[in-house]
Amino acid sequence: MDGTKPGSPQRERRLGLCKNSVFLVEISKRLVKIAKTAMLLTGDGNTGMTQGNSLDKYSNLDGWITSHCPKGTPDIIITNPPFSGQKTESMMMDPDILKLFGFGHRPDPEGAFPTITDDDDDRDAGHGTLLIRQAPELLFLERCIDWLKPGGRIGIVLPKGILDNRTYINYRRWMLSRCKVDAVVTLHKNTFEPDTGVRTCVLFLSKPLEDDPVPGDYTIFMAQSRRVGKDSKGEPVFALDEKGSATSELDEDLTQIAESYKTFRDIGTFTESETCFTAERGELDDNLNLNPQHYSPELNATLEKVSKFDDKPDWSVTTIGQLDKNIRIYMGPRWSSRSLVVEDPSDTTNLTPYLTANGALEQRRMTVKWFDMSRATDKQKECVRMLRVQKGDILISRSGTIGKVTYATRILADKYVISDDLVRVRVPDENMRAYLLAFLMSSTAMNLMKLDEFGSVQQHLQPRHIWGLPVPVPDSWEQVSPIIDAGKGMISAMEQTSLADESLRTNGFDSLIE
Description:
6-stranded mixed β-sheet, alpha+beta, 17 helices, 4-stranded antiparallel β-sheet, single chain
């Protein structure tokens, strides 16, 4: 277009080609009308804006699509497909749709999905077990790759959990066997607020030319957006000047990420930062983790510093789970407590106090729920028993803001039931417990935990992540006596704070009023 003169036949011919080369398949008739209107107002083409279910058979799509944009012809596909958010009612459950997709079937014992051909009869052939339901975003991913022209490119918004959750490893393996991953960009949690807080990412993929294999190794551009220019309510957030006053520019990093990616595509390199960096396809771990955070230079620098303790005399590096055979790392059971909750009780004498993760992490026990255990079933009673902690347990938040650490004081252990959202680390040895508490409360441990976090809606850690966390260990605890003393000092302070809080509750100002 830039090489032609306005109003010239060449310009009009190329403009016509552009107008006739843009296509849309959208299931909502209303949104198709809006898209057509938008295209008309901007002077672009609108004939390619069609209504239809883009997960249906290709032959059932609008005639304009089947004739102008059939399977194997799109050069570029960009989409933000609907997500299920793990809600059953949002899953795809139509067997006539599911049978069109390999992802609509259960993988074989090797983790491979069946290949579904365009032959209608073949779709009903034996391809293994058809799933009862499937997340629509996975079906859209398969459809985009199938629809795309060899040599074409895809930009698709997906839930962030697809990048690293173990349950998605077979889907990642399938994708990596058919496409080259050009880039992965994780988006800020406010990106789609105030409509949804689902954590998302953008995958940029390219499909090899016909008969060309997918490269075994290549460089993947990775980025983590940490500023999106708005808050959770959708209100704009502006950058500040050197005086701390708001400017007219949004406080966002997506522009810089886009510029870095363009430079990477143009010349194969760029200036790396904590926001934008690279990873090698051949160095992906056994879980085929594609989460940029796993390859963050900042977090991996911490891991490297910890690993160097192995080269120091009188030191070694092991995992928390291997520090001592008597260490136990676990979380409580998932359960439903709704039937036990007593709202705003006037008398709590015969009720059992329950703390959420945030409540347990508070210095004072202000956020307390109350359970009436006389209503509990045998299963609920067993869950409550398993959720209680022991004095001396180290507690680590495993959801939302992961890695916050607290200590189970005597009162916390004797009096309260604690949420399963806190991982319990039980260390019998007193010195080891104090050392480990000091380690887990450090920024070093926080960075190491961030390397393994995962999740689509909230970030999560599992006990296995804490079990495998590397920790430097001295040959003699005497070498780290100041750290152990600091850990014991923290434990003593938390015990004293707990006792003082309990004293205020029983003998404080409220007792004077009563």
